[in-house]
Amino acid sequence: MCDEVIFNSNAGNTTFQTKMLCGSRRKCKKATKLEENRPMENGVTDENQKSPMVQGQKQGTADSGLPPAPAPPPPPPAPRIRPRLIFHTQLAHGSPTGRIEGFTNVKELYTKIAEVFEISPAEILFCTLNTHKVDMQKLLGGQIGLEDFIFAHVKGQMKEVEVIKSEDALGLTITDNGTGYAFIKRIKEDSTIDRIKTVCVGDHIEGINNQTIVGCRHYEVAKMLKDLPKGQPFTLGLVEPRKAFDMIARRTKCGKSTGEGKVGSGRETLRLRSKGTATVEEVPTEFEERATKKVDDLLENYMGIRDTELAATMVETGKDKKNPDEFAEALDSILGDFAFPDEFVFDVWGAIGDAKNGRI
Fold it and tell me: Between 342-356 and 308-318, two packed helices, what is the crossing angle to 10 degrees?
């Protein structure tokens, strides 16, 4: 029998001060349909099935004087059947609970969520794990724990702000959702952007100086902002995630979740890859977690971006390399589009070595 992984939702109540421009909430028909039982799949071979006797074969007996016929070989063991990977999901501002499966990358994940809630995939800005809040520490990256609950944050209010670049750095850290939307992951305290209170963590950067940047990667957006002339004003077109107002009561009707605020406790995770199929892997080792965090910090310092999937890929690439030249060559072969500076590559190599030797 094919087992299913079952989740429940426990989205808390949050008050936001944002003017809503979105339309009324659609009733999710597909989400409720997905909660119905599904037929069993993947039958298992009957180990008790006997091999038929070959025609004309006679078993040896004491009367015939012939040796007994050899016993037939045992049947091969039945293949291990992995349960279908089913994840529970909600819209972060409130919705019924839906179930999704069969995705291999972030783009397919967003498409599955959109189908369940009858919205366009382009409406989804990003997803968080185990919390409906705009919590960048719980942002969905390249891995999903098998017990994680997925909350999708959709487009809310649009806004445009004028910024004067009074310093070389704006104080923004950019990331993206893997499907062409760059958004703000961190705002440095007392920075230029921090003084503009209408700009918030989680806001999608839709345009710069009235030019759309949808489809640009986070490192491209960070470079555009860095290259803007100092002392000159510019405009940012932003879209903030939709917040919950009248959906708070509806949220509690969806039932309580055992996942709110916790990290998935399963021993395995689903690893999403931008190229290739998703794979179920063991959770990262302590070394990999330490090294990934350090490399993510270096990405922010050098490039103004944070990307745990990118950091994990760099650690995976470098953990078995013997010297920085070999590491740099491997990075160029798989991540050449980033054009990492030499000093950054050397620092990443050092961080991986420090994590291996327990210095971080």
Answer: 70
